[in-house]
Amino acid sequence: MDLESIECVSSSDGLDEDEIHQHLHNPQHPSHQHHHDFSSSKPRNNVTNTAGIPGPTAIAPATSVHELLECPVCTNSMYPPIHQCHNGHTLCSTCKTRVHNRCPTCRQELGDIRCLALEKVAESLELPCKYYSLGCPEIFPYYSKLKHESVCNFRPYNCPYAGSECSVVGDIPFLVAHLRDDHKVDMHTGCTFNHRYVKSNPREVENATWMLTVFHCFGQYFCLHFEAFQLGMAPVYMAFLRFMGDENEARNYSYSLEVGANGRKLIWEGTPRSVRDSHRKVRDSHDGLIIQRNMALFFSGGDRKELKLRVTGRIWKEQQNPDAGVCIPNLCS
Ligand SMILES: [Zn+2]
Ligand SMILES: [Zn+2]
Ligand SMILES: [Zn+2]
Ligand SMILES: [Zn+2]
Questions:
Q1: Which ligand is nearest to the CA of 98?
Q2: 112-170 pLDDT, tens per residue?
Q3: Which of 37, 92, 122, 199 has the lowest tally of Cβ within 10 angstroms?
Q4: Which ligand is nearest to the Cα of residue 111, counting in written order?
């Protein structure tokens, strides 16, 4: 891998000489990963424990039943089919497949007994969303809670850093600090940018070659990704922007990217994708500026031994946010 040889040279608009050399950081885990302690970020009366299960003050009558619905092996909430051994010890269906037919609690043979009573009790429960302490006010029947939580607007964001399996989650301000401090990501203020990507050996295109820069403008944060990968048989470079926030808000912004030299240029204009969409998902949907390697080398000039791409761009806020599919009254009458 040749990660150290790509560098991002950035400068403010038009000031090419004012170059800041920024080496690509090793896309490995930051040495001190940690999870944001949400329960302390917003003081509320209702406490949640680490599993996000409402504490005693959330919904008092359901608490003990809720504890019964926690799998004693993996501590996740149990969903049908809930299993039990001959002695009545319960466990979830995922754990059942893993314990080789032995009850993890009493070591007796497990058999195939379903705990229908507990399943029915669960059906009658109503519980607050797991992200209650982050501001979600919703209360759900036990069995639909999980579905909501997977799309809850208050759920934390994953670290947007690509190229590593970073497991850090948190809200946007926390993740911005995490990107800066733990991943040493380059931070820029302003809605225009002018970057030069330099790579000494452009013949090597690996999936792991990428760059991330964070932009701060309009009171929001945006991730500019630049990377090289193999698209089918063809080595390509790709640049795209992700919005650090939800999809609905991302639609309020647009961005453009331009790359070129020698009287030719490629222009991309698009809507930033939310960081809710994984870096890989955006990349694989080709939602960004894609530059074939031959074109990239042409733009680089010289003897094609070195990749030197100047990517300029701009982020702007749309005047209004016409939701896709929603009629504008004047046009619909
Ligand atoms: Zn389990
Ligand atoms: Zn047992
Ligand atoms: Zn929620
Ligand atoms: Zn991270």
A1: 1
A2: 999 999 999 888 888 889 899 889 999 999 889 889 999 999 999 999 998 667 899 99
A3: 37
A4: 2
Per-domain residue ranges for the chain?
3-34+156-317, 38-151
Ligand 4 center–CA 224 separation, angstroms: 15
Q: How far apart are alpha carbons 192 and 174 in whole angstroms?
A: 24
How many Å from the N-terminal Cα to the C-terminal Cα in the chain? 60
Amino acid type, 10: S
The DSSP-derived string for 74-87 is T-PBP-SSPEE-TT
Distance between CA atoms of residues 225 and 186, nearest Å: 12
Task: Give me the residues near ligand 2 (ion), CB cutoff below 5 Å.
Answer: 85, 87, 89, 103, 105-106
pLDDT score recorded for residue 107: 92
**What pLDDT, on the 0 to 100 scale, is given for residue 286?**
93
Ligand 2 centroid from CA 125, angstroms:
25
**Ligand lying closest to the C-alpha of residue 153:** 3
Rounded distance from Cα 333 to ligand 4 centre (Å): 50
Please state, in angstroms and rounded to a whole number, the distance separating the CA atoms of residues 188 and 215: 5
Classify domain 38-151 at the CATH superfamily level. Answer: Zinc/RING finger domain, C3HC4 (zinc finger) (3.30.40.10)
Specify the pTM.
0.68
Ligand 2 centroid to residue 108 C-alpha, Å: 6
pLDDT of 31 higher than 50:
no
Question: pLDDT per residue over 200-231, tens digit each?
Answer: 766 665 544 678 999 999 999 999 999 888 88
